[in-house]
Each structure stands twice: as C-alpha cells, then as structure tokens.
Design goal:
This protein has 283 residues and is an alpha+beta fold. It has 4 domains: 36 residues, no CATH class; 55 residues, Structural Genomics Hypothetical 15.5 Kd Protein In mrcA-pckA Intergenic Region, Chain A (Roll), CATH 3.10.290; 87 residues, Alpha-Beta Plaits (2-Layer Sandwich); 77 residues, Pseudouridine synthase, CATH 3.30.2350. The chain is 20% helix and 30% strand. It contains 8 helices and 21 strands. A hairpin with a 2-residue loop joins strand 15 and strand 16.
C-alpha cells in the first residue's frame, strides 16, 4: 500500500474518513483513481471498453492479429477519426467504429455447420453468378458469417461458418492442425505400394505432404479410401492422388475439427451448440 502523503480529514456526523494516497483517494476502503490510472475505467463507467482489434474481431471482420494490420494501415475509423495506434480502446455502446467506410457493430458469435452438396463454390459471392455456399446458409442467422477454409466446387461434406474471426484463424492455421477426414473415391483401384507412398509422404510441387492416416474403407474395394490430413493447401487431397496417376471422382469431407455431418442431410445446416463451440475453442 502507498504511504499517505496528505493530511487525514477528521470524521464526524455525515462525514467520511478520507486519506489521500499517491495515485488516488481511498474512502472507506475503496480506492478511486484519476482517469490516467491503470484501473480508472473500473470506477469511471468505462468497464465496457474493449481493445479495437477485439472489437473488429467481434464484428466478424477478421481475427485480432489481422485487425492490427488493418489499424496500422489506417483503414479503421473511430468517431470519424482514423486510428493507427495499436491498443486503442473503444466503448461498443457509444463509439462509432468504421472499417472501409462501413459502420460496424459487435455481434454475437454464431457457428453454423453445413453439409455441403456438390456444385457450390466456397466463396461469399461470385462474379460469374454461380451457386455459392452462401446461397445455402444465408438464412441461418441475421449475422454475417464466413466459411472457415474451403471446399472446391465438386467436394461435398462438412463446412463450418462463423463470424468469430479468432476461431476461424485458429482452425485454418497449419500449426494448429484442425483434424480433417475425407472419404475418397478414385477412378481405379489404388495399389498397396501407392498407399504406402502416400503414407510415407509425397513431394509435390509446393513441398512435401504427409497425411496423418490413410487406409482403405473396404479391403474388397480399393477405390474407396479414407484419409486424415491437417494441411490447408489448396485441393491437396486431389493433388495427392493425381501425383500417382489417379483421378478423384468423389471427395467427401466427413470430419472437420471434430465436427461431423451426422443426421445432417446434404444441403442442410444447423447451429452448433454450446458444448461443440467450447470444444472448438479448446483445440
């Protein structure tokens, strides 16, 4: 505790004992702080303030780390003033935050799971007016959600959408290794030797790739293969088999980060429950 530096006021009827301390005034055991003090916001009604990068993430714009870069480059405004200083705090209840000229607001976090059908591209919109996954989940919630990762147009299966930028960044970053399992159907039987090559790792044009696990779904049908992989490289499963002379004619993602499409018809979606969200954040 800081040593007193001023006089003590005498207590009496209707009076409170007051002792001055460096950095603030202590009254009946409670310490009040000047606005410049570290804990000022707790006693001056600013407990709702959050860091600007967190606000951007909560608004579904991007992850916190990406938000820092947006702030540095001057793309974010608070109350009509361009902010470039990292660590700036805002009050979501009173401050007006704009990104690229659009007014933002902190939204509740939403997590939507889609069983993607064939023929839809994984993008927010398409200049060629092709069908997108947003056509399927556009009415899932009022919040604007984004796909986590990608599935190519012909690939089906589990696809997650959210406005939680931090979680999306975490699940797609290679170092975190979100578990993905695919059901592969090839144009011809895959030899034991080629299965062993895939398991040992292949050197592709963009580097070596080694799955976490691979096996035949049915030993009697060697065109049906299950492969577990955490790489986020573009079209990686198709490229693995193409490298050895096989064409993938069907590709279905059955598991993504522990989420499955169980009881979810192709083209349908559902909102994740609290338990599933907690599990994702623990990964």
């Amino acid at each position: 505790m800081d040593a007193p530096e001023e006089e003590k006021s005498e207590s009496g009827p209707g009076k409170k004992k007051k002792v001055h301390y460096r950095g603030g005034t202590k009254i009946q055991g409670k310490r009040l702080y000047s606005p410049k003090h570290k804990g000022a916001e707790q006693l001056m009604g600013a407990e709702t303030s959050v860091r600007l990068n967190k606000f951007l993430s909560n608004s579904g714009v991007c992850s916190r780390r990406e938000a820092d870069e947006l702030i540095r480059t001057g793309l974010v405004m608070v109350n009509s003033e361009i902010i470039t200083e990292l660590g700036t705090k805002v009050d979501p209840t009173t401050d007006k935050v704009k990104y690229n000229g659009s007014l933002l607001k902190a939204e509740r976090k939403v997590y939507v799971l889609l069983n993607k059908p064939k023929g839809f591209i994984t993008t927010m919109d398409d200049p060629k007016a092709r069908k997108t996954v947003m056509d399927l989940v556009g009415k899932a919630c009022k919040e604007r959600v984004y796909p986590v990762g990608r599935l190519d147009r012909a690939t089906t299966g589990v696809l997650l959408f959210t406005n939680d930028g931090d979680l999306a960044k975490k699940l797609t970053h290679p170092s975190n290794g979100a578990r993905k399992i695919y059901y592969v159907t090839t144009d011809k039987k895959v030899s034991i030797g080629d299965m062993e090559k895939i398991a040992a790792g292949l050197e592709l044009e963009d580097g070596k790739i080694q799955p976490d696990a691979i096996s035949f779904v049915d030993e009697k049908d060697r065109t049906q293969i299950g492969i577990e992989i955490h790489s986020g490289k573009n079209r990686i499963v198709r490229r693995i088999f193409k490298h050895l002379g096989y064409e993938v004619i069907k590709l279905d993602r059955t598991i993504f980060a522990g989420l499955t499409k169980k009881n979810l018809k192709r083209g349908d979606f559902r909102i994740l429950d609290a338990k599933e969200v907690k599990f994702l954040k623990m990964l």
